[in-house]
Specification:
about 525 residues; mainly beta; Jelly Rolls; Neuraminidase; 7-stranded antiparallel β-sheet; 1 helix; about 45% strand; elongated
Length: about 525
Amino acid sequence: MKTNFSLTIAIMSITIVTTGPLKSQNYQQSVFDANADIGKCGIKGSNEFLPESQEYILTGSGENIWFGSDQFHFAWKKMKGDFILSAGVRFIGEGKHEHRKAGWMIRDGLGSGAPHVSSAVHGDGLTSLQYRTAEGGETLETRSVVEAPDVIQLERKGDLFIFSAAVRGNPFDTVAVRQASLTGEVYTGLFVCSHDNNVAESAVFSNVRITKPAWQGLVPYGDYLASNLEILDIETGLRRVVFQAPNSIQAPNWTPDGKYLIYNSDGLLYRFDLEAGKPEVINSGLATSNNNDHVLSFDGSMLGISHHVAEEENRSNIFVMPAGGGKPERITARGPSYLHGWSPDGRWLTYTAERNGNYDIYKISVKKKKEIRLTDAPGLDDGSEYSPDGKYIYFNSVRTGKMKLWRMKPDGSEQEQVTFDEYNDWFPHISPDGRQIVFLSFMPEVRADDHPFYKHVYIRMIPIPEAETGRQDFAALTPEVIAYLYGGQGTINVPSWSPDGSKIAFVSNSGTTE
């Protein structure tokens, strides 16, 4: 649903989303200002950007990044303030030296002895946060327990530098160091060092993101960061930014024909043409204060929306309209009501509503408009969605003290827990073949009944046991992290699988990097 449990609802102004990419964050081309060898390298290095996959191939020589001077190849962007650097990394080939290394680097200058902090992944799997605190000074390190990670993240928060690493599928493990000498404008980017000046080594960096996080004092639902509309390939883990907006866009639905994504922005609904790379406004009639709870019917003919009715204290109510645009028909008689799912036969809508001081899951007949309560546990139940076969409604509930995924029969019976670990899990989305669930996970420190903007989050995936083995054994399963990102509210609130089940769409966020 659009707001958190406290029902803080913002009045949304109506503006047209910019159709061009952000100048400072154009992931259709290299995000780096320049690249060069640092120190005396025996073989000239290079940086190649691959537009189709949005990957970088960095090649370089260099004797080492250690002691009081360094030799390596560096692709950089000058940055100020706090930022988050994240990427997938892998070496090409077996390599000539076990201590070849690659990763992210934050550097005070381009001289070979400059102070720096680096997230270094070595050829033999050693992973460490390496740093030099003074010009020409000794290099120090703090090692990570993760061996041979293929996902790395380096974050600057004032004088604190946080290195997170993971083998894809697992949560991050984190180490950190404070360094006061690197709090001003710095050179920030990717590096590779062969550890042998007569040899060149190459590394591939995927899912490269340079993120400016929310500033202190940002007002939720009042201030917004820019948005990246992304597509993730489930098998390969590759993410592609297909569109960027300087304002908030949220919650992409994938149309059944695979040609469009539907999202909301500033109260309006947009249809994004994946081939043309451009959005257009969907005519939603009187509904011009729509939030991110919009859902396409399974056949793609109808669009359910949650529109804030100004005459009713701006409370969200549910409407349906033709997917191509048209006059909305009101379905719920009272709010707040936040839509989350259609039944496969198109007869029912399922949603979260506040009635008598509690938020529960309801369903309603599209024709008869009769509301039926399905859950009655204390606290917030949210994010309800039918499975493609219509046998279950999946949802998230705070009833255990953590926000976890649950499911029930469409009549509300046989409610059972689906996820069990320490994270707060929201918005279960079932794959078109009914075999997998993707969902959004907030870190344990986020309040269980809140799903705020602008946090470190995971998109995770879990198989549905009976689809795989014929057994109901959710407790024995460990969710797999399929995306590590900065986002939260609006990232993946609604069903966003591609029709063939090979991809998902979502939104990540960042402030401008310039």
